[in-house]
Known about the structure:
By secondary structure, the protein is α/β, with parallel strands linked by helices.
Amino acid sequence: MLVDRRLQTRATKLFGVSYPIVQTGMGWVAGPSLVTGTAEAGGLGILASATMTIDEMDAAMAEVRSRTDRPFGVNLRPDAVDLTDRADRLIAAGTRVASFAGPPPAEVVRRLRDGGVLVMPTVGARRHAAKMAELGVDAVLCQGGEGGGHTGSVPTSLLLPQVVDEVDVPVIAAGGFHDGRGLAAALAWGADGVAMGTRFLLTAESKVPDAVKSVYLGTPVTGTVVSSSIDGKPQRVIRTGLVDSLESARLTRLVRAAVNAWRFRGLTGMSMAAMLREGLAMRRSQRLTWSQTAMAANAPMLTRATMVDGDIDAGILPTGQCVGVVEDLPTCAELIERIVGEAVVALDRLAPTEPR
């Protein structure tokens, strides 16, 4: 596909990709297949490593690199006890981008950038963007309230212009984006590209079970809820019976959280001492109570139940509000080609290249 110069932004130059489209690092979802599909189609795929052991992360990076020579990123937890080691693995692997769902430590930002890895944290407020710019990050991903998973209350239409005005680094817009009209709108607001999670979850390369994808496709725009009952922080998910029960039963919620945290420890091979260290780090960095810490450790297992095991009754379905307007399961190549084509049409409509 011929690349329209209007879609060549600071982000495409920085990341070394063809199109200003980022596939986010969704836990249990953004594996080598999805990341490779996105990269080969010209976007920036981001591998989700927060639910992987460090050795699994190494293997996943190696698998992506064996399948494509195009740039990709890896999402890291800013409070992971082995964060420095993980950063060193990204440097050694020549990974292009390290993304973070929250603010990374200053020393890790320096370490990554000195090692040639670009740093892109997610922000949900203007002041957070300013703090990240002070740390010297290379780009910020700005997520508005329409976004899936952990999200804020300020809609993208209000948050994005604030962040663009606040920082000089490239800004990637997230929260509600799913098509080319959205990409054109983000560029008009001053963003350098868009990031999408739900839209890429619903592609052929996504390994999410078909039955779970069917639930997403059948969910209306009004079928989501932002709940703090899953892990103590606001998180947008599809409303289900489980979510309703977590909202109403505090004691049951905490018992379930403790059990799932223990199961997650077993899956990752984490020792009890390491689990406690990670819990303490999470509690300090996010200023959580002990009950919130237990709930935060619970979330990965609730997501794994659906995204890996396909058990809709036992897990949660993180999603952006755009789930209600997604209707198909294209390949990553088909999706990105469609988005680029729609964006060009939208830009032509707003500013025709020739008199009409």
